[in-house]
TrEMBL record:
Gene3D superfamilies: Dihydrodipicolinate Reductase, domain 2, NAD(P)-binding Rossmann-like Domain
Identification of the protein by name: Gfo/Idh/MocA family oxidoreductase
Taxonomy, superkingdom: Bacteria
SUPFAM superfamilies assigned: Glyceraldehyde-3-phosphate dehydrogenase-like, C-terminal domain (SSF55347), NAD(P)-binding Rossmann-fold domains (SSF51735)
Protein species of origin: Maribellus comscasis
Length: 493
C-alpha cells in the first residue's frame, strides 16, 4: 500500500530520444540539465495529448499555463475542437509516430479507450515522458502490474486520472475510518447506476463505412479486427469487452477509491460475481462482485481485519441497514457504505456528502488522525492535474501515482474476471504474486452466451428463439487470457 504522505524530496526525469531508449537511459535530475535545453522547474511543461476528443480534452484544459505541443487522436473530426483550442500544437493520428518524431515532449496526457492505455503509456514512459493516464489504468491485471513496475524502473512522474482522489473528502473519510470512529469494519458496499451506455449487446449486424477522418486500424490497435460501426466509437466502446471494461472499469476507480485508500485494502484473496446475462462481446447490463480481503496490519487507532467488499452496478444496491434513520440518504446514482461495529458511514463518490450514523441517529465523529491534503492550484487548474504538473517540474509524488494506482487498478479490473467466469459456480481463489486463479482445473469448461445479431425490423418468434447460442471454452486458458491479453496486429509490450 502506498504511503499516504504525498510529497517526496526527489523525483527524477529522463533525458532521452528514441535512439537512447534502445541503448539505455541516463537518469539525471531535472535541475541539473537546465543548460541542455530543458526548462527550469518554474517554467512551462511541454505536454502532448493522446486521445483528446473526450476526457483528454478536459484534462488538458485543467492544466492551464502549460505548453500543449502535440495532439494525437485516431479521429480528427472528433478531436477538431481540441485542435482549434491549441492551434500551435502538431497533429498526429499514431502516438508512436508522435513520440518518435517530436523531441520536445516532456509529459503526456492519455485518454484513449481502455485497451490501448498500457501500450501508449509504456511507450511514453520508456522514453522518459511523465505520464498522466486516465482511469481505469489498464484493460487487464497484468498490464497494471507492468506499468507499476515500469514506473518504478523509469522514475518518471505518473498519475492515474481518478481526479476525485485529490478531493478533501477522500482524506476526511480516511481520517474517520483510520481514527477508529466507526469501530471495526468487516464489510463495505459500493454501488453505481452505470452503465448509462448500452451493454449486453451482440455485435452489430450491419457494416458501416469508416468515416474519412477516422483511422479504424489505429482504433482497433491490439484487439481483433472487426468492421467499423458507430456502436464502438467514439464513446460506447466502454461496454465492449475488446475495448472497455464495462461499468466496473469505468466507475470502479472513482467509487472504490476511498474504500481502497482508507482501508488500505491491497490485493484480495478471493472474489465471485453474479450478473445479468453474460455474453461473449459486451459487459452485462447489471452485475454484483464480491471481494474478500485478508487482515491487514492494524493502524494505531483502527484494526484492519478480514473484510468483504461488494460492488453493485446497473441499478443493483446493497440492503439498507435497519438501524439507519429512515431518511438517511443512499444516492442510487453512486456511493459507498462502511459498516463498522460502532457506526456506519455512507457517502457519494470520493466521499462527497459523507455522514456517520450511530444508534439510529446521525453522529459527528472526532478523528484522532490528520492526513495531508492536496493543495488547490492558484491559477484555477484542476487540483489533480496540476499536482501532477507541479511534481513533474519540482519533484514529488502525485496523489494517485502508479505506485498507488497500479495495485488498486488490479483489484478493479479483476472483478470482470469474476463476472466473465461465473458459470463455474465457484468462489475464485486469487494468487496475487503470480496473478493467477488457483482453483481452476485444466479440464474445466467455461460456458457463456453468444448473442446473434439480427435485423432490427425483423423481430419474430423465430428470431427470439434463435437469438443466442451457448459457447464453451477451456476455463483455465480463458482466465489466463483475460489476466494477460494476447495482443494482435503486431502490437506488443
Amino acid at each position: 500500500m502506498k504511503s499516504q504522505k504525498k510529497v517526496k524530496v526527489s523525483r527524477r526525469n529522463f533525458i532521452g530520444t528514441t535512439a537512447a531508449a534502445a541503448a539505455g537511459f541516463s537518469i539525471v535530475p531535472r535541475h541539473a540539465v537546465a543548460g541542455l535545453g530543458h526548462v527550469a522547474p518554474s517554467d512551462k511543461l511541454n505536454i502532448a495529448g493522446i486521445g483528446i476528443g473526450g476526457k483528454g480534452k478536459v484534462n488538458l484544459r485543467n492544466m492551464p499555463g502549460q505548453n500543449i505541443v502535440a495532439l494525437c487522436d485516431v479521429d480528427w473530426d472528433y478531436a477538431q475542437p481540441v485542435f482549434d483550442t491549441y492551434p500551435g500544437a502538431k497533429k498526429y493520428k499514431d502516438f508512436r509516430e508522435m513520440l518518435e518524431k517530436q523531441k520536445d515532449i516532456e509529459a503526456v496526457v492519455i485518454a484513449t479507450p481502455d485497451h490501448t492505455h498500457a501500450l501508449s503509456a509504456a511507450a511514453a514512459m520508456e522514453l522518459g515522458k511523465h505520464t498522466y493516464l486516465q482511469k481505469p489504468l489498464t484493460h487487464s491485471v497484468w498490464e497494471s502490474r507492468y506499468l507499476t513496475k515500469l514506473a518504478e524502473k523509469t522514475g518518471v512522474v505518473t498519475q492515474m486520472g481518478n481526479e476525485g482522489h485529490s478531493n478533501d473528502e477522500v482524506y476526511e473519510v480516511a481520517e474517520v475510518v483510520q481514527g477508529g470512529c466507526l469501530g471495526v469494519i468487516k464489510e463495505a458496499h459500493v454501488w453505481t447506476n452505470r452503465p448509462i451506455w448500452r451493454q449486453g449487446m451482440p455485435q452489430p449486424l450491419k457494416e458501416v463505412k469508416v468515416p474519412k477522418t477516422l483511422s479504424w486500424d489505429l482504433f482497433i490497435g491490439p484487439a481483433k479486427m472487426r468492421p467499423y460501426n458507430p456502436e464502438y466509437h467514439p464513446w460506447i466502446w466502454r461496454g465492449w469487452w475488446d475495448y472497455g471494461t464495462g461499468a466496473l472499469g469505468d466507475m470502479g476507480c472513482h467509487l472504490l477509491d476511498v474504500p481502497n485508500f482508507a482501508l488500505q485494502l491491497g490485493a484480495p484473496v478471493a472474489f465471485q460475481a453474479s450478473s445479468s446475462l453474460v455474453n461473449t462481446e459486451s459487459a452485462p447490463v447489471a452485475a454484483k462482485v464480491s471481494y474478500l480481503f485478508p487482515a491487514r496490519k492494524n493502524l494505531p487507532y483502527c484494526a484492519l481485519p478480514e473484510l468483504e467488499l461488494t460492488w453493485y452496478d446497473g441499478g443493483f444496491m446493497p440492503a439498507r441497514p435497519f438501524d439507519l434513520p429512515l431518511d438517511a440518504p443512499m444516492n442510487p446514482g453512486g456511493g459507498f457504505m462502511f459498516v463498522g461495529s460502532e457506526a456506519t458511514l455512507i457517502a457519494e463518490s470520493y466521499g462527497a456528502k459523507w455522514k456517520v450514523y450511530k444508534n439510529g441517529e446521525e453522529f459527528t465523529p472526532k478523528p484522532k488522525v490528520k492526513l495531508e491534503r492536496i493543495p488547490d492550484d492558484p491559477n484555477g487548474g484542476g487540483r489533480h492535474e496540476m499536482h501532477f504538473v507541479n511534481c513533474c517540474k519540482n519533484g514529488g509524488t502525485p496523489a494517485s501515482s502508479f505506485e498507488y494506482a497500479g495495485p488498486f487498478n488490479e483489484m478493479v479490473v479483476m472483478g470482470n474476471l469474476a463476472v466473465r467466469m461465473q458459470s463455474l459456480q465457484k468462489t475464485l481463489l486469487w494468487d496475487s504474486e503470480n496473478m493467477k486463479v488457483t482453483n481452476i482445473s485444466p479440464d474445466e469448461k467455461l460456458r457463456t452466451t453468444k448473442l446473434l445479431p439480427f435485423a432490427e425490423d425483423v423481430v419474430t418468434r423465430k428470431v427470439e428463439r434463435e437469438s443466442k447460442e451457448n459457447v464453451e471454452w477451456n476455463a483455465q486458458e480463458m482466465c489466463e487470457e483475460w489476466v494477460k491479453h494476447s495482443y494482435q496486429n503486431g502490437w506488443s509490450l
